[in-house]
Amino acid sequence: MASYPDSTKASLEQRLRARARERWPQITTLQIRHRGTFSYIEATLTGATALKLCRLRYVGSARHWQFAIYRASHDDYDESIFPAGLLTGSPIPDATGSILIGVLLAVIAIVLTNLNRRFLIGKGGRPAGARGHHPGLAGRAGGRPGDLSAAGDRRTADDLGGR
């Protein structure tokens, strides 16, 4: 199992301990264990309560880490993706994927806008190249839209027992 540089481990520990002192005064000690590409962070609170907090995975840079929160209910770590997190661990594929999704959504928005515009001004309804009307209706209404002279059943609500 590959590991990451000792200088990165020292930098990580220094940054985590400074952040804990700054933000969480109830943490008396912060334990950081390194195994392979993972760093496991545990805290001891005032009153000697020890808590597993999270796991960080080194992804090639001291500034970019994958994060997993500890789940006591399952006694495991659950990988998390934050809005600024990296899915693949590298900013290039993540940025490329985000841009492609944005372009796809823009194209869909343009197509829907054009369709709605055509419907609102009365030029929509039938795709270009479509001819005629529904084949199941042929012969029932004279074969032309609006022509009801050949409609077979012309009974009214009165004929069917209505008022």
List the main descriptive attributes of the protein structure presented here.
163 residues, alpha+beta, 2 domains, 5-stranded antiparallel beta sheet, 2 helices, 5 strands, 29% helix, 26% strand
Give the helix/strand class.
Answer: alpha+beta
Distance between the termini: 85 Å
Low-pLDDT residue intervals, each spanning 5 or more residues: none
User: What sort of overall outline do the alpha carbons produce when their principal axes are compared?
Assistant: elongated
Number of helices: 2
How many structural units, i.e. domains?
Answer: 2
Strand numbers in spatial order across the main sheet = 1-2-3-4-5
Order of helices and strands: HEEEEEH
Helicity level, as a percent range? 25-40%
Summed over residues and divided by their number, the pLDDT gives a mean of 77
* Strand runs, count: 5
Strand content: 25-35%
Q: What does the radius of gyration come to?
A: 33 Å
* Largest sheet geometry: 5 strands, antiparallel
Task: Characterize the structure shown.
This protein is of the alpha+beta class. It folds into two domains: 6-85; 90-125. It contains two helices and five strands; from the N terminus they run H-E-E-E-E-E-H. The chain has a five-stranded antiparallel β-sheet with strand order 1-2-3-4-5, covered by helices on one side. A hairpin with a 4-residue loop joins strand 2 and strand 3. It is elongated and about 75 Å long. The N and C termini lie far apart (85 Å).
